[in-house]
Design goal:
With 240 residues, this protein is of the alpha/beta class. The protein has one domain: Rossmann fold (3-Layer(aba) Sandwich), CATH 3.40.50. Strands 6-7-8-3-9-10 form a six-stranded mixed sheet, sandwiched between helices. Strands 2-1-4-5 form a four-stranded antiparallel sheet, covered by helices on one side. Helix 3 runs parallel beside helix 6. The chain is globular, with a radius of gyration of 17 Å. The two termini are 34 Å apart. The relative contact order is 0.18.
């Protein structure tokens, strides 16, 4: 059995008086893609925010390579190898593509490695290499998503957290983004994927968890979750 890179045990999170997560548990095995699917407000992004240190849990454990990271500062979590690509992309619009990518490596000192990783990002996304000095704010939504993923990769993550990478993108761009996600995984990066497009997420994943109002209601091999009648009806628009 593949060793778990990330383990979450009985995680609970509140926003003021509202409980966003209710004892969620999940595992992300080394080298896999794991997806979290569910409706808006199910708690998917809150899971990622808790892992990244952006939201402090009220109960439960978050273990990365067996070490508790709950309550650690976000920049320290990045240094440990856990990096989030946020929903909405969050690029710096007044900086160039190359400046955005350089900022992704802010926790690193290895200049040679940084240059090598910059070239790897440009190999993944040739469109970015064509316009390294273009301001990020002038890019299309798809190009900004490529840049956001590239910036996350510049931190050299062991675990990449992707929050809604297909949001607001054209179908052909979404296809390209998901091909790239598969390529990043094949190159050795473990991925935890939050995605509203359940079909795409499940097809791209090894295992999956379905969240509903802060609870895990289903988990298992992604192919089995994809064929679950409840999932088909609730998230794929199919009826039995």
């Amino acid at each position: 059995m593949t060793e778990s890179l990330l383990q979450i045990k009985d995680l609970s999170v509140f926003y003021d008086a509202v409980q966003a997560l209710r004892g969620v548990s999940l595992q992300v095995p080394q080298g896999t893609v794991v997806s979290l699917i569910g409706a808006n407000g199910a708690g998917k992004s809150t899971v990622l925010r808790a892992i990244s240190g952006l939201k402090k849990p009220t109960a439960g454990q978050i273990l990365f390579k067996g070490r508790s990271i709950a309550g650690i500062k976000p920049e320290e979590i990045v240094r440990l190898g856990v990096v989030q690509c946020p929903e909405g992309r969050g690029v710096f619009p007044n900086l160039t593509i190359e400046e955005n990518l350089d900022l992704g490596a802010f926790v690193r000192q290895d200049k040679v490695g940084i240059r090598q990783d910059l070239e790897k990002v440009y190999q993944l996304f040739p469109r970015l290499k064509e316009r390294t000095q273009q301001l990020a704010g002038t890019l299309s939504g798809g190009e900004q998503q490529m840049l956001a993923i590239g910036r996350a990769l510049m931190a050299r993550p062991q675990l990449l957290l992707l929050d809604e990478p297909s949001l607001g993108l054209a179908p052909q761009v979404i296809e390209l983004i998901f091909e790239t996600i598969a390529q990043i995984n094949r190159q050795g990066t473990t991925i935890l994927l939050v995605e509203q497009n359940a079909q795409l997420a499940l097809e791209a994943s090894h295992t999956a968890y379905v969240l509903e109002t802060g609870n895990t209601i289903l988990e298992g091999e992604a192919s089995k979750v994809l064929n679950d009648p409840k999932v088909k009806e609730a998230y794929l628009g199919e009826t039995a």
